[in-house]
Amino acid sequence: MKATIERATLLKGLSHVQSVVERRNTIPILSNVLIEATAEGALKLMATDLDLQINESVAAAVDQPGATTVSAHTLFDIARKLPEGSQVQLAAADGKMTIMAGRARFQLGTLPRDDFPVIAEGELPVSFELPADTLKQIIDKTRFAISTEETRYYLNGIFWHVSDDPLPVLKAAATDGHRLARVTIPRPDGAESMPDVIIPRKCVAELRKLLDEIDGSVGVSLSSTKIRFDLGQALLTSKLIDGTFPDYSRVIPTGNDKILRIDPRSFEEGVDRVSTIATEKTRAVKMSLDRDKITLSVTSPENGTAAEEVSGEYTALGFEIGFNSRYLLDILGQIEGDIVEVHLADAAAPTLIRENDKSAALYVLMPMRV
């Protein structure tokens, strides 16, 4: 194999694929990236961790087609440190890859391409397109609520499902048991027979990175066990989480009649300020509601007390409720409008947070004792 490629092109391609590769691997070839130089003048890069696979194609001048595998992180670090604007020559033969750019020359050990594992996709019967911006919105407004508890593995991703209520929609939800985030969008054409799927956290993170470079639409193809995102030059394929997502609709409150309307920025800043002294363990902030007067306070045995009044529109009976300040800040950070509605019931019931009844996203936050 012999090819010449511009450093910036190689670096961009490698930056996408190397982040899928785990730093520690018991199987040596999983630390490698598969590089294939084709007669059509492309360099195909591929990396996998056996659950997630990324394929990327970049333009190159190919003198001799061929394929090999080489350490992904090492090659990425080399490309990163090469001079800007340089042409990089890659040549592989006899179990070695030579990398040359300007006066720099590296030689790395390789492993045979035939040993490189590939995720067998099988049939992906459901396919549809989503605008990149919509996909970004779905991810940004839900992924902070994905659980990191490995024992509840079925919560370690974003749950996608379609329903008719009353119009055909696609819903994306994530929860860790303390908070829930859900986004609802009109159902895309082709998604009618989509099975319920849970997209793993790592796939979500890699997809979000790739979306920053996409303007148009993203092709989504899936079965009940795998999903593939077609992002033009890059293809991201992932196994889905094999588990049943809980019926989250049961925790979305419908009868919360105490409504607080407040500017999300001043609310967010107030919570952020008083939570400075909150203990790392509980991060509890107390919210005291009175007619059009909201007092945020924190009492910490180690650090003292903090309180701040924020103005909002509230006309129901006054009461006190406590929240985890970090969870509350995560939600407020996703609110884009000038007003956020906080639907409350009592100090022990789940609280519903959304911009208004027309907004695509809604959030549920469990209160805590303070």
Describe this structure in words.
The protein is of the alpha+beta class. Helix content is 16%, strand content 44%. It is built from six helices and 25 strands. The chain has helices at 7-18, 72-81, 132-140, 201-211, 264-274, 325-332, and strands spanning 2-6, 32-38, 42-48, 52-59, 61-64, 66-71, 87-93, 96-101, 104-111, 126-131, 157-164, 168-175, 179-186, 197-200, 217-222, 226-231, 234-239, 258-262, 284-290, 293-300, 304-314, 319-324, 340-344, 351-354, 361-365. It has a 13-stranded antiparallel beta sheet with strand order 5-1-7-8-9-6-2-3-4-17-16-15-10. It has a twelve-stranded antiparallel beta sheet with strand order 14-11-12-13-25-24-23-18-21-20-19-22. Helix 1 (7-18) runs antiparallel to helix 2 and helix 5 packs antiparallel against helix 6. The longest helix has 12 residues, at 7-18. The protein is elongated, with a radius of gyration of 25 Å. The mean pLDDT is 96.
How is this structure best summarized?
This protein is of the alpha+beta class. It has six helices and 25 strands.
